[in-house]
Known about the structure:
- By secondary structure, the chain is α+β, with helices and mostly antiparallel strands.
- The protein has one domain.
- It has three helices and four strands; from the N terminus they run βαββαβα.
- It has helices at residues 14-34, 65-74, 95-103; strands at residues 2-6, 43-51, 58-60, 79-89.
- It has a four-stranded antiparallel β-sheet with strand order 1-4-2-3, with helices on one face.
- The longest helix has 21 residues, at 14-34.
- InterPro entries: DUF6172.
Amino acid sequence: MKKVFKLTHPKKKYARLVDSVRRDVKKYIQRERRRELPEGADFWDFDCKFGPTAETAENVHMAEIGKQIDAAEAQQLESFYIEILARPALRMINPYAAQKDENQDPES
């Protein structure tokens, strides 16, 4: 999804437009996660960008999109750009968790 969301409308209130954007982003992410994974992939990872325009958009983590939308709402921006691209990925083993599991004695 590469989209500029406009937050101006003659009949709709600003807060409802922001809620609509949140819902659209959430629906898109859920739809992408339901897609079948290619062989060798564990999950869908998302590359996200957010900014006032496409040219000034910066990379953000998917968990930060809601906070970015909140910031745009606080600044009363008339529009902003969101880019969310799904890509298949493999889960990385957490070295700390793996080390912790090795140190535990099995209960027998």
